[in-house]
Structures are given as structure tokens and as C-alpha cells.
Automatic annotation (TrEMBL):
Ranges where the HTH araC/xylS-type domain occurs: 176-276
Classification via Pfam families: AraC_binding, HTH_18
Keywords attached to this entry: DNA-binding, Transcription, Transcription regulation
Record protein name field: AraC family transcriptional regulator
Length: 278
């Protein structure tokens, strides 16, 4: 079973735009998904094409987490990268949109909000232990008496803790004229088309594209793409992927050039990030 925001695009063709949505649809929280008296429910999603779901909100807290691959979420014009081992906590009522590449397996767990403290009212990265992941999947697939399920759900709640690592902020331009560019770079950070090439694809002048990035983000296109690449690299390193493999996946011809860009942008080396995982 899929949450409503994902059902159409997971079962049907790729969603190229969300122009069919009324403005009220974008900002009206969806109906409750967790039946009383339970605390949570988990939806399982596996993509076979580039999948994007438009901006929406829930009346319950949501935890997006990945079993395989990377999921990009956008909250308040900021990019959040979700990889195996961590989850993204999205409080109730918070507008968000997202994108996943083909062959990604991710989960969306919705929680009744009443039992959570105000500390959970802001988006954050959550450490998701193997025990928590296994128990959430077990609950999603296994029938059991209500009292037993409630006890197991409480264990899941107790196992969730905010991650100690700070979030790496990547702003996202909102101008609709850049939608194709943003979607492509998020889905494939290795795309190395120049500013002139992108201006041609978008049927805009180089000056217009430059002006949009400067006005919205105070960044150049190249600076923004580097931030996306480093955010994606952090997520991949978090899964234990080697520095050489990550450097190729995010568009660098040599590991040395990737290491230099990573250190300049993030403040430490990819090796440091990999060591933290191991």
C-alpha cells in the first residue's frame, strides 16, 4: 500500500510536472494514515523509474528511510539526502517534495503526533539502527494481536534518536524555468553540462540563468551544483561506498579533484566521513 502522494507516480508513468494539482491540494494535509489505537504505520515503495512526488504535507509525523539507494527530499527550499542507515524526520504539517532514482527501495513511516515532544517539531536526520529497521519492516509484514503490536511500536519509537551530525544545507531554486535543470542535477549529480549548454536546453540566455541563481540563492550555477554533489557524496559515503566510487558517481574524473572539492566545501575529507561510518 502506498501513501497517496506516491500512489499515482509509483504505479503509473513518470510524473513530469505537477501542474494538474490545485493550489489547495498542495497545502492541504492528507488524511490520517495511522488507525487508532496504534502509533505508526509503514509504507514500502520500490521505484522502477525516476520517481518524483509533488509538494504535500501530512497530519502525522513522517520518517522517510531507505533500504537501497538515495532519496532526495526538499523542505523549505533545502535539499535533504536520505541514505541507508539514516532517516529524515518530517513533522506534521511541514510541506515537502521528493525524488528517487530507479531501483530505490525506501520506506515512509507515519507516526501519530500526540505522543511526541516539541523537540520533534523540526525536520532532522534520525539515526536508524538495524534493530529499528528490522522491527519496522517486521511490523509492516506481520499480523499480530493489537496489544503485542502496540508494545512493539513503542520499542520502535524508543529506538529513534536525532543524528549527531549536522545537516548539510543545499538551497534549491524555485523558479519554474529551472525545474528541468534542478531535477536532472538532483537525479544525476555527475551531469557535467556547462551553464551555456543548460541555457540552450532551457531556451534561456546564460545571463538569465545566472541572474536566477544569484537572486534566489546568492550562488552561481557551478557553486550550487558543487553543493548538490557534496551532499550526494556525503550520503553515499554514509553507506560505506569507497571514495573512488563516490567521486565517479558525482562527476569527478579523479579522486584527488573530488577530495579537494569535498574538503573545501564540507570542511573535512571524504576519508574522515568514511571513517565515521566504519
Amino acid at each position: 500500500m502506498l501513501i497517496p502522494a506516491l500512489r499515482e507516480i509509483a504505479d503509473g508513468p513518470q510524473l513530469d510536472d505537477d501542474s494538474h494539482l490545485r493550489e489547495s491540494d498542495r497545502h492541504t494535509p492528507m488524511a490520517r494514515a495511522v488507525p487508532a489505537p496504534f502509533q505508526l504505520t509503514t509504507y514500502i515503495v520500490e521505484t522502477d523509474h525516476i520517481t518524483r512526488w509533488p509538494e504535500h504535507a501530512h497530519v502525522e509525523h513522517e520518517l522517510i528511510w531507505s533500504d537501497r539507494g538515495v532519496v532526495n527530499m526538499i523542505i523549505d527550499n533545502q535539499l535533504w539526502t536520505v541514505t541507508p542507515g539514516v532517516g529524515l524526520w518530517i513533522p506534521r504539517g511541514v510541506l515537502h517534495e521528493g525524488q528517487a532514482n530507479p531501483h530505490v527501495a525506501f520506506r515512509a513511516t507515519l507516526f501519530t503526533p500526540e505522543l511526541w515532544t516539541p523537540a520533534w517539531n523540526e525536520p532532522c536526520i534520525v539515526t536508524l539502527s538495524e534493530a529499528a529497521r528490522a522491527l519496522l519492516i517486521h511490523l509492516a509484514h506481520t499480523g499480530m494481536p493489537a496489544e503485542q503490536r502496540l508494545r512493539a511500536q513503542q520499542v520502535c519509537v524508543d529506538l529513534l534518536t536525532p543524528a549527531s551530525a549536522p545537516h548539510f544545507d543545499v538551497p534549491i531554486p524555485r523558479d519554474p524555468r529551472l525545474r528541468m535543470l534542478v531535477d536532472k542535477v538532483l537525479s544525476d549529480p555527475a551531469d557535467d553540462r556547462s551553464l551555456d549548454q543548460w541555457a540552450h536546453v532551457l531556451n534561456l540566455s546564460r545571463r538569465t540563468v545566472t541572474r536566477i541563481f544569484a537572486a534566489e540563492l546568492a550562488l552561481s550555477f557551478a557553486q550550487w551544483r558543487t553543493l548538490v554533489r557534496m551532499s550526494t557524496a556525503l550520503g553515499m559515503l554514509g553507506t560505506g561506498m569507497s571514495v573512488n566510487a563516490v567521486s565517479r558517481r558525482v562527476g569527478y574524473g579523479t579522486s584527488s579533484s573530488f577530495i579537494a572539492a569535498f574538503r573545501k566545501t564540507v570542511g573535512y575529507t571524504p576519508g574522515n566521513a568514511l571513517a565515521a561510518v566504519n
